[in-house]
Write a structure and sequence with these properties.
The structure holds two protein chains of two kinds. Chain A is an alpha/beta fold. Chain A is built from nine helices and 14 strands. In chain A, the strands form four sheets. Chain A has an eight-stranded parallel β-barrel with strand order 1-2-5-6-9-10-11-14, surrounded by six helices. The chains are: A alpha/beta, B mainly alpha. At the A-B interface, strand 8 and helix 4 of A face helix 1, helix 4 and helix 5 of B.
């Protein structure tokens, strides 16, 4: 199955939405072609049974995004569904995401190939950092596929899954991560959100060499790449979204970006708590560099790029 | 059983003590969870991995984040008791509430109960607790965006009392 799509020659440049982004839009809006929205940050989840409803929305932020959506493309990036978890899909949350999609019209929607929820415990990810690795086998694939099918029915837009950061790989798996992602693309038409910084972080912590990892990725599946920077914590490198993209990650983007024929978007992720450190000038410089990368991809990949 | 494997993995990440126990006596895994041989071997491989400590560290850092953000006075007043109080709180509430203000208020309630039970904590804890709890209660109330009613939540009722 393939997603019908009209892939532009030059991938668009986007930014992960956070409370600092409206100010960046005012200062440098012309550099931002899409805004990637985390739905989970647009509501307060009080749990089932709360009067007034489980999800109480951040109406002001949603109104701002709705206004922006006239000029900018909106993309959804969820963290709350924990699709690989062996538990039922959170249908109430799916409905809430669909309601948001009705207002913002996501060009595509991505989720994480990580576990955040278990029946009797959750692993707080605080937007970035900790998701538990997934067992890549037929059972997990069936769970993820079934849930993605329901999510697709609810949203009606292309879906992507993001490669995770991990500290401890699961031993003795039936598939590699790249094979799992490739099967999602080939069998379900679910694209790959390739987070280059996640792969870099995994390598910094003893994981696979990034270029070797990227060579095993199904290049046709990659529809979006993520750029970000991180910090060390107790001797480990974390995907904390706390700095500008490191030079090594830029090198990967220049080397592999043109090899992804369906690449639609390049997104910079940072957390607003680090905005004082990164600064407006830093973000603007990052966005300008992303435009240069997008032009490089356009110039380098074949004209008949969309497969 | 995959769900038991996932549950065990998450329990291990949240508990360095359980990690130590499993390293010393791997059978603990099969006694507590319904696992097949391969799942048990996988978990043992994970828990003995040199970077398992990173999972545990990040788990604690991320659970601490909403409390540090919303309860700075209380955390400072707890001082050297903070670690043990957090351990007990996380033991009683294994699932993080994704709503930061609910999670923070839940911690306030926990500390309040500990004080009522006679637990001796630092001299400034009670005052810091009331100050931070009031602030969080206000923010929590403001996060009720669909219908406004100051008496609607147990959290605000607790503060009113």
């Amino acid at each position: 199955m393939r997603i019908p799509q009209d892939v532009p020659a030059r991938p668009a440049v986007g930014i992960l939405n956070n409370p600092a982004v409206p100010g960046i839009m005012e200062a440098a809006g012309s550099l931002i072609e899409y805004v990637e929205v985390i739905p989970d940050r647009l509501w307060f989840d009080f749990g089932s049974g709360e009067r007034g409803g489980r999800f109480q929305k951040a109406h002001g932020t949603i109104a701002t995004l709705r206004e922006q959506s006239g000029a900018q493309t909106m993309v959804g990036h969820g963290i709350g569904l924990s699709l690989p978890s062996a538990m039922p899909l959170d249908q109430e949350m799916v409905a809430e995401i669909a309601s948001l999609n009705d207002e913002l019209h996501f060009a595509w929607y991505s989720e994480h190939l990580s576990m955040f929820l278990m029946p009797d415990r959750s692993v707080p990810n605080a937007q970035a950092g900790l998701g538990l690795p997934v067992v890549y086998d037929a059972e997990t694939f069936a769970i993820v596929r079934r849930k993605l099918g329901r999510l697709r029915s609810a949203l009606g837009c292309p879906l992507l899954m993001e490669n995770p950061t991990i500290f401890t790989p699961v031993p003795d798996m039936d598939m590699t991560e790249q094979e799992f992602l490739s099967r999602l693309w080939v069998e379900e038409g679910v694209g790959t959100l390739l987070d280059l910084h996640n792969t870099y972080a995994n390598w910094r912590n003893g994981g696979p060499e990034p270029r070797e990892y990227f060579r095993q990725i199904n290049a046709n599946a990659v529809m979006e790449i993520h750029l970000a920077g991180g910090d060390e914590l107790d001797g480990y490198y974390t995907d904390s979204h706390s700095r500008l993209t490191p030079p090594e990650v830029w090198d990967y983007a220049y080397e592999f970006g043109p090899q992804f024929p369906n690449l639609r978007g390049i997104t910079f992720e940072f957390h607003e708590s680090y905005f004082p450190r990164i600064g407006l000038d830093g973000v603007v410089a990052e966005l300008e560099a992303m435009h240069a990368l997008a032009l490089h991809v356009e110039a380098t990949r074949a004209p008949e790029h969309a497969l | 059983m995959l769900s038991e494997f996932q549950q065990a993995f998450a329990d291990l990440v949240s508990s360095p003590n359980l990690c130590r126990e499993v390293r010393e006596r791997p059978n603990v895994l099969r006694e507590r969870y319904r696992l097949d041989d391969r799942e048990a071997r996988r978990l043992l491989g994970i828990v003995t991995h040199p970077r398992m400590a990173a999972n545990c560290t990040l788990y604690r850092a991320n659970r601490l984040a909403p409390l540090a953000l919303n309860l700075p006075n209380l955390l400072r007043a707890l001082g050297p008791d903070l670690r043990h109080v957090l351990d007990a709180f996380w033991q009683e509430h294994p699932r993080t509430d994704v709503h930061f203000y609910v999670e923070s208020y839940r911690f306030c309630e926990f500390v309040r109960t500990e004080l009522e039970r006679g637990r001796r904590l630092g001299p400034d804890v009670a005052r810091a607790l009331e100050r931070d709890a009031m602030t969080v209660a206000d923010r929590l109330e403001a996060s009720h965006t669909e219908i406004y009613s100051p008496l609607r939540t147990p959290f605000t009722r607790a503060v009113d009392q």
